[in-house]
Amino acid sequence: MVRYAALKGFYEVEKTIGCGGFAKVKMGTHIATGEKVAIKIMEKAALNDELPRVKLELQALKTLSHQHICKLYQVIETSMHYFIIMEYCSGGELFDHIVENSKLSETQSRMFFKQIVSAVAYLHSLGYAHRDLKPENVLLDRNQNLKLIDFGLCAKPEGGAQSLLLTSCGSPTYAAPELVLGKQYLGESVDVWAMGVLLYALLAGYLPFDDTNIDSLYKKILSGKYEEPVFMSQESRKFIRQMLQVDPKKRITVKEILTHPWITLGVLDPVDTSPDCIKCYDKECVVALARYHGVNNEDMWRHLKRWRYDYDMATYFLLMDRKKRKLPLKLNIMATKLPIRVKSADTIKVHVNLPELTRKSANLPLCENTVDNNVKVIITSPDVTPLKDNVDIKELKASHQNGFKLNKAKAGEVKFETIMRKPMKRLRSPNLDGDYSPIPTKKILNDVTSSASTPDSKKIKTCSETPSSARKVLGSIERSIHLMKNVLTPKKTLESSQNLQPIVLTNKDLFNVSTTQCNDAEFVINELEKALARKGIDCHRKGFRLRGKMEPNTLTKFGGCSFELEICYLPNMVTASKVSSVKTPIKSTSSEMERMNVPSVPATIGIRRKRLKGDAWCYKKVCEQVLALTATELRQPKESSV
Ligand code: 6BE
């Protein structure tokens, strides 16, 4: 089944990388360039009163253009959905990056923080406030460049940035005191407070104000008192204190932050707050796109510079990005479905959604194409009768930007045909990216007992213990096997789809995995299930996966999350040297989650975590606690716990 007809032929939709309340973000490939994109999908029916937020976010994203703000490429609206095509940030959330490293060094924190400040200063300069700054809303691209996301709460007061706002929003742990009090506030200064919390989280690996009880959390925020860890430098402490000033009038401003000694330390270049030149004329990219469409460069540019957030705009942005990376500006020819209404049996007219590109005289062909069966295709001006309301047609129409073809058909008949301008070619290689999840691999909160600090730490330990050099080497071997697997093995096997066996992980999948020294999958999952039950967490078991859900606070909706814990076999390359006696027969495994068949048999069981929805810090705590509890149980002899 084609899930999203509107994307067909333009984007390949791959796995889900994140879910929010009303949006889902999937990994995708922009077919013309072969570049990865993030596709945010929202079902209109589920939006309800969130629609204004969506519109606000789109408006902001169309206006903002900065190297540290996640770029908007295309907006597709159908009768059922919004598809928002955005820049792909392969490094995932900054939150995960902090968690994986426990905390960041001052140098790295400074590098990241400067990028955040530059984006925030830029958006403030245009009269916007983000209002939901937190490490979950900061992503990393392939070059460790930060990108701000989630402008759904951003505000642009009519009277400019200096106007007071009233709506309370954002995540409570990052909320400034004036927000907590429901007072009028300045968008800019609440962003500064959140940046203070964020810098603290970078340097400490945990939050300055935290409490599972929302009232206590608010009390802490209002008091403005937090612990200053001993390992933090005096300069860092002082800088954070300036941002975490309870009285917004005493709080440092963004302008002051830009030139603050902590920021400028050791660096000559000032923070760059200038806009990104993305909506600029780039001859090479225009030429590449014009050639691709078979039109002249001037017409192509005239069309592009209307910045309509259509497929051509996405292609242009992605070409500019390829150019920056010194990659060839080649474009793939795509197969598209195009709805066409033929006006008469003899005249073939095709709706081309590029009105700028049409000739002065409607009947002069723009270009001619001959397709396989020698049907001559003539593209003329877009004087095609609009199609009547029909959901399917709308879905298709919404995305079609170009397409060429026709056939003999009765007047008025609507035809859908797959149009091949040239044989389709795919640039895309099999997807090697691991699964996404913002998870704790080490203890970073001081108020919970985590695996790293319990006496059981030998039982459950994180795989980040594998030396990174070894991981790199193994990773590359695994990748080659993986590539072969993707080519040779069908995607799903009966066994894995029925979840009769735990999956076998590849080395690159290990970053969200805790290992056990137990080799009985059934036993481990039962223990996990018990630990969840003891914590009072609802869970649902399917095969070797457990889905758990923590309800958010009913009043504040704060702190809820849903997550998945999956029992899996670890690749024996890492662990089999230690554990060798038990051999579990595992056949081919492969599914949406990139499973693979490891030739020799792994023995050790791992527990893979994944956040499905909700508050990242809440999820981190829950996982830490459940895993610590399970670790204690796994240490006991098996018999005692049946
Ligand atoms: C605009 C929201 C967005 O995401 C993670 C990855 C790749 C791309 C991380 C783990 C594989 C790649 C092993 C919201 C939320 C899902 C973080 N609004 C995005 C854009 C967006 C998400 N990505 N790129 C853009 C993204 C996240 N992984 N690794």
Secondary-structure blueprint:
Layout (H helix, E strand, L loop, with lengths): L10 E9 L3 E8 L4 E9 H4 L3 H13 L8 E6 L3 E7 L4 E2 H7 L5 H20 L12 E3 L5 E3 L15 E2 L11 H4 L4 E2 H18 L9 H10 L10 H10 L10 H5 L2 H4 L18 H11 L3 H8 L6 H14 L10 E7 L25 E4 L5 E4 L11 H9 L14 E7 L40 E2 L5 H21 L5 H4 L5 E2 L8 E3 L5 H14 L3 E5 L2 E6 L10 E9 L2 H4 L29 E10 L1 H20 L7
Parallel strand pairs: 16-20
Antiparallel strand pairs: 1-2, 2-3, 3-5, 4-5, 6-7, 7-8, 9-10, 11-14, 12-13, 15-17, 17-21, 18-19, 19-20, 20-21
Helix pairs in contact: 4-6, 6-8, 11-12, 17-19
The site of ligand 6BE has 17 residues, from strand 1, strand 3 and strand 6.
Please supply descriptive tags for the structure shown above:
642 residues, alpha+beta, Transferase(Phosphotransferase), domain 1, seven-stranded mixed β-sheet, 19 helices, 21 strands, globular, disordered C terminus
Description of the molecule:
Helix content is 31%, strand content 17%. The chain is an alpha+beta fold. The protein has four domains: 5-88 and 277-338, Transferase(Phosphotransferase), domain 1 (Orthogonal Bundle), CATH 1.10.510; 93-264, Transferase(Phosphotransferase), domain 1, CATH 1.10.510.10; 342-354 and 361-418, no CATH class; 503-632, TATA-Binding Protein (2-Layer Sandwich). Strands 15, 16, 17, 18, 19, 20 and 21 form a seven-stranded mixed beta sheet that branches. Helix 11 crosses helix 12 (297-304). It is globular, with a radius of gyration of 27 Å. The model is unreliable at 337-497, 573-600 and 638-642 (pLDDT under 50). Ligand 6BE binds next to strand 1, strand 3 and strand 6. The site of ligand 6BE has 17 residues, from strand 1, strand 3 and strand 6.
